[in-house]
């Protein structure tokens, strides 16, 4: 891949309770053995400030359980401790894979 080519970024737009729309990058999606599907989202990055290194930035990750209903995606908050533990494990694995690259 040349420097000019950018990988395609999948996004999702979420309406907040205040009616504001926010766009998030889909970091990862995965399905568990129990059939539940999960999505990890990060806010779309604003332009980096001058001199900022992209790799050194920490991002807030928002995990959700989700269902697809036709063209719609319904997001559910993570509430169970076991789900939080599983999400943490997935994030650690993704971080380890990123460090290897």
From TrEMBL:
Belongs to the UPF0473 family. It holds the Pfam family DUF1292. It comes from Kroppenstedtia pulmonis. It comes from the Bacteria. This is UPF0473 protein GXN76_11710.
């Amino acid at each position: 891949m040349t420097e000019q080519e950018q990988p395609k970024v999948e996004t999702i737009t979420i309406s907040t309770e205040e009616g504001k729309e926010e766009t998030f990058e889909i970091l990862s999606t995965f399905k568990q053995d129990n059939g539940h599907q999960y999505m990890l989202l990060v806010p779309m990055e604003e332009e980096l400030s001058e001199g900022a290194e992209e790799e050194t930035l920490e991002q807030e990750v928002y995990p959700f359980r989700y269902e697809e209903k036709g063209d719609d995606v319904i997001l559910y908050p993570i509430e169970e401790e076991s789900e939080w533990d599983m999400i943490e494990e997935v994030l650690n694995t993704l971080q380890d894979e990123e460090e290897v690259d």
